[in-house]
Amino acid sequence: MNYENLLISIEEKIATVTINRPAKLNALNKATISDLSKAIKMLGKNDDVRVIIITGSGEKAFVAGADISEFANYTVVEGAMLAAEGQESLFDFIENLKKPVIAAVNGFALGGGLELAMACHFRVASDNAKMGLPEVTLGLIPGYGGTQRLPQLVGKGRAMEMIMTAAMISAEEAKQYGLVNHVTAPAELLDFTKGIAQKIIKNAPFAISRAIKSINANYKDGKDGFETEIKSFGKCFGTQDFKEGTTAFLEKRKAEFTGK
């Protein structure tokens, strides 16, 4: 499938999705959100893909926010629909995907760009990255999950300060806050992120999907994370991967997991 604003490559079970609007610093417009939603769904069903990496084209920006020109004249109802549809079709979908999604943050990740990175399961940043949620400077608040995911990652106080001041933080500050896991030189960002992906690929896909579900359950209202973990732990015992993993351990060899 061809996408207007994305480049997709698949190599050694790792899919790299590159947002490709360099003239707009990869800003998220409706077409790009639609492309991302379709691409992530497609890759989620592709048995040749075990890990997905999302990044931006060039070294200036991961995603430098939303395309403001598209919603500058929206009504209250249209604004609410914009947030609801975006969260359901892309941001929440990524967070709950069974396959790991890693954000490789190259340069600016602002507004919707930081919200996209936070929807991923974890983040790696280049040392020139700058991150922030500047929506209050436009008379808005973050609408793609930023008010919920940022406090989960950095704590309530820091999230309040970042959102209310609209300040940008550096990659090193983001690492100190727990917003990103690693910081690398820009030229090393993708290779470093793929190195982490390769470590993930060695492990059992079904178990990884259940780990994602169990961890996420702790952050959802009405969900008992411990109960989700117990059920998911039990379901792992019914998989071929469990039999392969335990057999390989006992036979002192490397397991060959199939995801079944």
TrEMBL record:
Q: Which Gene3D superfamilies match?
A: 2-enoyl-CoA Hydratase, Chain A, domain 1, Lyase 2-enoyl-coa Hydratase, Chain A, domain 2
UniProt superkingdom: Bacteria
Tell whether Lyase is among the UniProt keywords. Answer: yes
Q: Quote the InterPro entries the UniProt record gives.
A: ClpP/crotonase-like_dom_sf, Enoyl-CoA_hyd/isom_CS, Enoyl-CoA_hydra/iso, Enoyl-CoA_hydra_C
Q: Which SUPFAM superfamilies match?
A: ClpP/crotonase
Q: Which UniProt keywords apply?
A: Lyase
Among its keywords, does the record have Lyase?
Answer: yes
What family does the entry list?
Answer: Belongs to the enoyl-CoA hydratase/isomerase family.
What's this protein's name?
A: Enoyl-CoA hydratase
Its lineage opens with: Bacteria, Pseudomonadati, Bacteroidota, Flavobacteriia, Flavobacteriales
